[in-house]
Design brief:
It is built from four helices and three strands; from the N terminus they run αββαβαα. By secondary structure, the protein is mainly α.
């Protein structure tokens, strides 16, 4: 009889570990949803247009594209919209967004973040928050 008990305890332990891991991942997703909602920065290829997408405040990629289209119509025909904010693999609730959201179809060049920082500092005189 004593031989059967360790097997039962091991079985419970093997069931408990996946359950604990699942709860931890779900908790990470919920916490990241409310604390790690990033902003997305965009620049034109000529580095004269800068805009920001803030999903938490309702400013989406549609507003950025609208502003960029206006910029193009004002005589800047040979420019391309470039996303400056790279993927954030450590934010689990964005993983689905990487597959379905239009913002990820815009080409990305994180090295152009300096343009966004210069423009922000020029207008506001302070540092940008982390994207």
């Amino acid at each position: 009889m004593s031989r059967g008990q360790p097997t039962a305890i091991k079985t419970r332990r093997y069931l408990f570990l996946p359950l604990l891991l699942t709860i931890a991942v779900l908790l990470l997703i919920v916490v990241s949803r409310f604390t790690l909602e990033p902003t997305y920065y965009y620049v034109s290829s000529d580095e004269r247009f800068v805009d920001v997408e803030i999903p938490l405040k309702g400013r989406d990629i549609g507003a950025v594209r609208q502003n960029f289209d206006r910029y193009v119509k004002n005589g800047n025909r040979d420019v391309v919209l470039i996303r400056v904010t790279p993927w954030r693999w450590y934010i689990p609730h964005l993983w689905v967004s990487y597959c379905v959201n239009d913002r990820w179809k815009v080409p990305c060049r994180p090295d152009l973040m300096r343009v966004v920082e210069q423009r922000h500092h020029q207008y506001f005189g302070d540092q940008l928050p982390d994207p």
